[in-house]
Amino acid sequence: MILGIETSCDETSAAVMERGTLRSSVVSSQLIHKRYGGIVPELASRAHQQLIVPVVEESLHRAGITKEAIEGIAVTRGPGLAGALLIGISFAKALSLGLGIPLTGVNHLEGHVYSNFIEDPKPGYPLICLIVSGGHTQLVLVTAPLQHRLLGETLDDAAGEAYDKVAKMLGLGFPGGPVIDRLAASGNREFIRFPRSYLDHAGYDFSFSGIKTAVLYWLRDKNLRPVRLTSGQGETRLPEALCADLCASFQAAVVEVLVAKTIRAASEFGVEYLAIAGGVSANSELRRRLKEEADERRISLFLPAPEYCTDNAAMIAKAGELRFDAGLRSSHDLHAEPNLSIP
Ligand code: KG4
Ligand code: ZN
Per-residue pLDDT tens for 147-174? Predict the structure, then answer.
């Protein structure tokens, strides 16, 4: 019976997993950041501090157990916001000491990979996983449980970060991904051809700051910047149709690069399984295009359920379970590693 704890960014989350079966998963999203158009690290730490005890208690309650039934604790050790990670790690250490049970520190990015292993059917190995969130854009080759190789990553902004920044320029509020995704559905993706950065580079690295700047310059050249909210969130001075065309054109550029590199990696490494993870993997266009390409090549595509795309402790419990099975425990010297990457 493993308790998973995740506090790396703006979600306070706890989950209970019993022999691979999820018994409960509680995610408390911090809404305070919406007001600031982005995550404020100090406010995230304070909110985690208030939420960690009730969220863990709720996860035990929903699993129908008391804390004495927990046999191991898995906690995110990085990457993430230092102060936010510290809350989860300190809580996990204290609980582990108090109950006399083992602790294991989980790499948040590995957690995202294993969000595809929470529900059935599960992928086999080797597999290529595209991790796309507000903080990361990485292509990972997974040859066996816990055997990862980073093939490439973004050299500047993460894909989700580009969504959030473009949404801010258009006055669409935070986070930007879901609203751009929705508006893009009715827009013209050929309206503007934004740059497909790094598409033709041989490796698997990405770059999304160029496209973000291209949107900014386009708006500035048309005297449409800065866009201000008129009243309340989601209202913009841009005509809705123009906004939809911009969103569709921006999304087409981002998704084309993500899909092309992921499919190229799958072909080069000859994998039969493909998976995506992270907040941006909820994107409808990305899911649709990847599915088309994977089906054409008879590759099995795994898309996590929406609640496991964004940050959650169920994926940390799953990765933790694999770590405990492999005898990988952490000492109470475990510390936050804000810049941790996949080896
Ligand atoms: O994984 P996540 O919850 O948090 C981390 O960044 O670790 O991902 C959040 C990111 C945000 O940038 C948000 O705009 C993006 O995921 N996102 C989306 C969609 N839903 C969330 N991006 C594109 N399309 C979506 N439907
Ligand atoms: Zn994440």
Answer: 999 999 999 999 999 999 999 999 888 8
pLDDT of residue 225: 67
Q: Is 164 in the pocket of ligand 1 (CB under 6 A)?
A: yes
Distance CA 217, CA 211 (A): 10
Q: 67-80: b or e for each residue (b if 16 or more CB lie within 10 Å)?
A: eeebebbbbbbbbb
> Is the pTM for the entire model greater than 0.85?
yes
Does residue 163 line the site of ligand 1, with CB under 6 A? Answer: yes
Choosing from 136, 166, 280, 303 the residue with most ligand 1 atoms within 8 A of its CB, the one to mutate for a pocket test is 280
196-241 pLDDT per residue, tens: 998 888 899 999 999 999 999 999 898 886 565 444 554 556 888 9
Tell how far the Cα of 64 is from the centroid of ligand 1, in angstroms: 31
pLDDT in tens, 96-113: 999 999 999 999 999 999
Does residue 208 have its Cβ closer than 6 Å to ligand 1?
no
The mean pLDDT of 335-341, rounded to a whole number, is: 96
Token code pair at residue 31: 């809404």
DSSP per-residue letters across 75-88: EEEESS-HHHHHHH
CA of 332 to the centre of ligand 1 (A): 32
Ligand nearest to the CA of 178: 1
Nearest residue (by CA) to ligand 1, atom 18, is 177
End-to-end Cα, the chain, rounded Å: 28
Q: Give 273's contacts (C-beta < 8 A, 6+ positions apart).
A: 123, 124, 125, 126, 127, 128, 299, 300, 302
